[in-house]
Amino acid sequence: MNGTEMFCYMCSMAAGGTACTVKGVCGKEPTVARLQDNLRFCLLGISAYAYHARELGHVDEEVDAFLERALYTVLTNVNFDPESYVDLALEAGRMNIKVMKMLKEAHIKAYGEPEPTEVQTGTVKGPAIIVTGHGLKALEELLKQTEGTGINVYTHSEMLPAHGYPGLKKYKHLVGNLGKAWYDQRALFSKYPAAILATSNCVMLPSKAYRDRMFTTGTVRLPGVKHIDGYDFTPVIEKALSLPPLEEEKGETVLTTGFSRSAVLGLADKIKALVEEGKIRHFFLVGGCDSPVKGNEYYREFVRKLPEDTIVLTLACGKFRFNDLDLGDIEGIPRLIDLGQCNDSIVAIEIAAALAELFGKDLNDLPLSLVLMWMEQKAVAILWSLLALGIKGIRIGPVLPAWLNDDILKVLVERYDVRLITDPVKDMQEMMGG
Questions:
Q1: For residue 128, what are the β-bridge partners?
Q2: What is the DSSP letter of 401?
Q3: In a 3-state reduction of DSSP, which class is residue 43?
Q4: CA distance 350 to 214
Q5: DSSP 3-state of 24
Q6: 48: closest CA among 378, 385, 388, 380?
Q7: How many C-beta atoms surround the C-beta of residue 325 within 10 A?
Q8: Residues near 357 by Cβ (< 8 Å), separated by ≥ 6?
Q9: How do residues 225-270 score in pLDDT, each as one tens digit?
């Protein structure tokens, strides 16, 4: 391999696989480099889930061994075979299922199984701390240390599902959720004079308006922001108490989260009866990672226009596009069911598998459609988990990941029937069989 060809592969990490146009051994377009990018994103997602499980004392040697082997493959010039990278992505999907299941079990063991819970979106009077990210362990330790201090704790974005866990919502000073998806941080954190704790990824570089009252923990680091090793959050508490207290502010809506596998499957017989009576016609899983692009308005419009005899399951921060909508219920079955964080995709998978068994059908024969917004890392790993399970007809968009090119998209379309979203009404009609 000459130096030019070597650069074609080596530059893919820095350039995201999208800037390289060198015609080396990878052909007209750097398909291998893009497949390497895809696998890297998968490994980042798996590693994030494994990290949070390890915080709670749960590890899986098979997952760790796969991460070691896959990282060696993708970060060195040892593999230039496109087909093997597809196989590795599918294996990553299977490993991601294992690690999501492990993390969910860790969360339930530590905090109890989630239960449907209403969450306020306004503020109450008093000093405050806002917690963002995915780290339930960090939130638990903060709640313990702030008990009796008069400080109110609020969740943000992917921390919203924390309110459904009995072991966390028992803390009465966990008072509500502020904001929506991750990208509203600068406006939200500037608005409220609260201390802020970032516990994982999906954190943005802070503005001067709140940099001095922001803190990081775990793997997160930000320039000019104090980092806390371990779980002694004394500096966060001291900062919160030194700031002006928040005033009472009524929220625009009340959000409901905390639907676990048991909460949904406890209604299985009723759901089956309603389906057989024609009162529930179709289920939709609508969620994933959100991004600040105009095209993602599609998802609110899609959910808003769904017929009243349909059920929407949702998870991850994409739900904030529409989780303020009042969709009502079907004879006591909520039409909007929030399953939790992105890692709670395992709950959606288990529910779908249980429904398939209940109706005596294959997963792909259920009246269930998946419509996913997503960007990278965890969401990519989840996509390959779904593909590894043989699930067909998944719709994605509007912004496609940078590692996709025509060749890779062709594989996803031809082998897995992956489809691109177009128009909310047209797509909905197609998914419901016309």
A1: 152
A2: P
A3: helix
A4: 37
A5: coil
A6: 378
A7: 15
A8: none
A9: 999 999 999 999 999 999 999 999 999 999 999 999 999 999 999 9
